[in-house]
From TrEMBL, chains A, B:
GO cellular component: cytosol
Keywords: DNA-binding, Transcription, Transcription regulation
Source organism of the structure: Seonamhaeicola maritimus
Lineage of the species this protein comes from: Bacteria, Pseudomonadati, Bacteroidota, Flavobacteriia, Flavobacteriales
Key word Transcription regulation present: yes
SMART domains registered for this protein in UniProt: HTH_ASNC
SUPFAM superfamilies attached to this UniProt entry: Dimeric alpha+beta barrel, Winged helix' DNA-binding domain
GO molecular function, one term: sequence-specific DNA binding
Any one GO biological process: regulation of DNA-templated transcription
Protein name in the entry: Lrp/AsnC family transcriptional regulator
Entry coiled-coil feature ranges: none
Domain named HTH asnC-type: residues: 3-66
Length: 152, 152
DNA sequence: TATATTTAAGAAAAATTTTCTATTATGATT
DNA sequence: AATCATAATAGAAAATTTTTCTTAAATATA
């Protein structure tokens, strides 16, 4: 499938603000409303767009205590890895989980209200998952930058 | 401001799919279309919603090489910190940057096409920023989980 | 209890999306 | 270069959705 410069610009605009009307986008792209509409539908159908979402303000909903957790497994057998990944993905406090190179461990991005809630998360949820060897938590003092925009 | 259970559910729905019509939301919430409309406008005005965006598929646009970079500064003076944060925020490859506790350093989430592009990023961009003492890169083998949904 | 204030509902108006048809551009083939 | 097929674009019409407006109900306040 051909994915031209106009499609790229369109995706950039939609990543910035998906509530723009096709008319606004058509002005920015020098296209007709229908052309914009058809391009968006094509991008959606081809899988370039995973979805449209609202971004909630973390401070407002009192969930702005971010912790990165490094995790090592006791063993790295297929069974252990699969089991750990399945369990950790279920936890709503875990926004992101990455399998990392090097020390063969994981990096988790955990979002909670405060230290008390993080403690609960560690004790009641994370450490009850099997096969965890060790954990190392890094607390975020300040979120310097956070964007969802992928540059192409 | 009062932020009730219905507002929470509404934010959950909008975080999952912001393209739902007010009619669909009104059915899920047992409200009228106008009531949903007014609640959304209120949440927007009060700052609960930072924006509405399209999520682009990383694989499709060939930007799915994720690297986490740990960075230590040579000094931690106010000047150095401010300068570093300003410069690093400008880099489009850096999706996220966190100031961490403990070793007083930073964690960067970097998104590029491949290792070649990461090398370019390191050599031409990251290491040209002043005050960096040392860096340590962790490559993502697999993205086990990634959500933008904040639980409330 | 009476009075204000907020919240909600339904209808109407305005705006936007979506469909449809026709036209133009693009690329491949000869 | 000419022809054909395919894809992209534009404008108008239809369908849907958002937004506004008015009225009614619920909640809180004095």
């Amino acid at each position: 499938m051909i994915f031209d410069a106009t499609d790229k610009r369109l995706l950039e605009f939609l990543q910035q603000d998906s509530k723009q009307t096709n008319k606004e986008l058509s002005n920015k792209l020098n296209l007709s409303v229908t052309a914009v509409y058809e391009r968006i539908k094509k991008l959606e159908k081809e899988g370039f767009i995973d979805g449209y979402i609202a971004l909630v303000n973390k401070e407002k909903v009192k969930k702005n205590f971010i912790v990165f957790c490094h995790i090592k497994l006791v063993q790295h057998s297929q069974d252990y890895v699969v089991s750990f990944e399945r369990e950790v993905a279920k936890l709503k406090e875990v926004l992101e989980c990455y399998h990392l190179s090097g020390d063969y461990d994981y990096l988790l991005k955990v979002l909670v209200t405060d230290m008390a809630e993080f403690r609960e998360f560690m004790v009641k949820k994370l450490t009850t998952i099997n096969h965890i060897g060790s954990t190392h938590s890094m607390f975020v003092i300040n979120e310097v930058k956070h964007t969802t925009i992928i540059n192409m």
